[in-house]
Specification:
It contains eight helices and no strands. The chain is mainly alpha-helical and 126 residues long.
């Protein structure tokens, strides 16, 4: 858990626990590179919430585009957030949607980092 606090102190809750399990077997160099790339790819739940709220006033589906779900974003855009019902449901599930996006990004970044920065022989990696 100390690596996640050292490299990604802004993480909280389930995301922090999940990333801590990924960082557990990484070297310091890998963890530093992971934090740099992951920080640029992760999405903030509060920003997604604000974008979902904008769906009632400006344009529905912005939060889905923000979370990388282009197809769902287009669906929400052309159906007014599935007649606002989808947007309302998303407001209650926004933390889960954001966590799923961030978990997927963390997995991709982990594989990328382990391929680009292999651990020296004798050190454990996943």
């Amino acid at each position: 858990m100390s690596k996640v606090i050292r490299y990604l102190p802004e993480l909280e809750g389930d995301e922090q626990v999940y990333v801590a399990t990924l960082l557990k077997n990484m070297t310091d160099e890998q963890a530093e590179q992971f934090a740099h790339v992951y920080r640029s790819r992760r999405r903030d739940a509060n920003t997604a919430l604000i974008l979902a709220l904008l769906g009632f006033v400006v344009m529905a589906g912005i939060h889905r585009f923000y979370l990388g779900q282009i197809g769902m974003g287009l669906l929400y855009l052309f159906t007014a957030g599935l007649c606002f019902i989808g947007t309302i449901v998303d407001l209650f599930n926004i933390k889960k949607l954001t966590f799923e996006h961030n978990r997927k990004q963390a997995d991709e970044v982990m594989h990328l980092i382990q391929g680009a920065f292999p651990a020296p022989p004798g050190q454990l990696t996943e």
